DMT family transporter
Amino acid sequence: MLVTATELPSAPPAGPIAAFTARFNPRLLAAAGGLCIALSSVFIKVSGASGATSSFWRCLFALPVLAVLARTEARRTGVRTKVVPPLLAGLGLGLDFVLWGEAIPRVGAGIATVLLAVQVVIVPVLAFLFLTERPDRRFLVTAPVLIAGIVLAGGFIGATMTGPDPLLGALAALAAGAGYSVYLLLIRLSSGPSTQVRSLLLATLSAGAVAVALGVPFGRLDFAPGWPALGWLVALSLIGQVAGWLLIAGALPRMPSATGAALMLLQPVGAVVFGIVLLGEQPSVLQLVGCAVVLAAVCFAGRGARR
């Protein structure tokens, strides 16, 4: 039986962000988005805000922008979005935000960002447990190398000079990576080009609720941080969250997975460079070696990932 062009199923319409980013080179978009996110750790550290405070305000400032974009997306695509999975994904995202914000002043902005790469190990494990996706051979080779790099980068061996409590900070960053892994897995199941903004809006709303739930009981949430802290948190929200994430969301589906994985290394590399240049952080030699091992392992794993 012949199938004519009119009988072929049409792809779902792209939302406004996907349509806008389609005009530009995806490599440039991914690079710009990665550097925007790399600045997030700098904004958090210079703001002096706690993890719960930075998480709450970055979500609050992002919500109006995302709401406008989400409304445009809904009108343009006419595709209904799932509600529960993005909200559940936001719980992992909120945990990531809060713990990462606590890790940055303790272990350093650059090292804390590098340690989030633990999601390269956790996401395939979760996919295997809950989606029965068997990890490939590259994962089995990469996992122990990545763990060794994390041990070095986190300051678990040797002296560190990147923060007042590097071991606790490293543990918080690793736990943040676990929360981010949950977010990645759930958002993958619920988002697409036609619903990516609305999914991010719901996840951001849920993440803000996590900041309140974790921050208020322990007195770690400041509802009036004042200036200039509030200004840095505005920059965190608009540059590190809205702009960075939407640029990457519009870029990655248009590139081979190996290229996308390589460009995503700009996030931890940029964070380490920004930490040294802008914040005066001084990672030890062993920490820098650990960072290099982590980045190499992530790059190797990315080259074997399917699109």
User: Anything to note?
Assistant: The longest helix spans residues 51-77.
